Amino acid sequence: MQTTRRDVLSFASIGAAGAAGLALGAFAPTADAAGSVGGKGPAIEGPLLDLRTGKGNQMAYARIQGDTDWGKQKYFWFKGYVNAVQPGQRAVNLVGSQGFGAIRLIQRPDGAIERLCREIIL
Residue 120's domain spans which residues? Predict the structure, then answer.
C-alpha cells in the first residue's frame, strides 16, 4: 500500500508500530494508534516513563536536556539573536549570537537531578 499525503500529515497521531510501518512505506495503524488526547491515553504513560507524575516529567526533561548516563557530558551548539524587550513595544534584535556548551546531569541522593552547564557565547 502506498503512503498518502494524509497519512504523513496524521503522523503525530499514530503509534510506534504505525510509525515503523510508515517508515517502511506502508501505513499500518494499530489498536494504540490513537495517541494521547487531553492528557490521557497510551502516549502519556508507559512502563519506563509516566508523564502523569512529577518524577516522570523530571526524567523526561532530563532526557531532553542531557544524557541520563549520569556524569556523561552532552555537547550542543546554538545560533540566534539577543533581543531587547520594552513594555508596549515590539522586541528588537540587538546583536547576533552563537556558541556551544556541555551539559552534565548528576543524580543527587534525594532523587533530584542536578544540571551542570558550561557555555561559551560569542
Answer: 66-122
